[in-house]
Write a structure and sequence with these properties.
Blueprint: H1 4-12, H2 17-24, H3 28-41, H4 58-76
Length: 77
């Protein structure tokens, strides 16, 4: 029994990057990036990023940006 992914792979394996991008209607750079990532890592999953994570949540960042924006407007007056 063939799964959908093996069926797709069989159709796309012998195609060029240009042909794949036309078939899937996505940019060639995206196709190239996915293929390169697969060859290097063996997966297309997002890898953990380096550096420290944000301690502030998205809501807190919005409040901080709004506060900075307001203080800039007040100082310009």
């Amino acid at each position: 029994m063939q799964t959908a992914s093996t069926n797709i792979c069989e159709r796309l394996c012998n195609k060029s990057i240009h042909e794949i991008s036309l078939l899937l209607n996505i940019p060639r750079s995206t196709v190239n990036g996915i293929i390169t990532k697969w060859k290097q890592l063996g997966t297309t999953a997002t890898q953990p990023s380096s550096g420290r994570n944000f301690k502030m949540r998205e809501r807190g960042q919005c409040v901080l940006k709004r506060t900075v924006h307001r203080s800039r407007q007040l100082s310009a007056e």
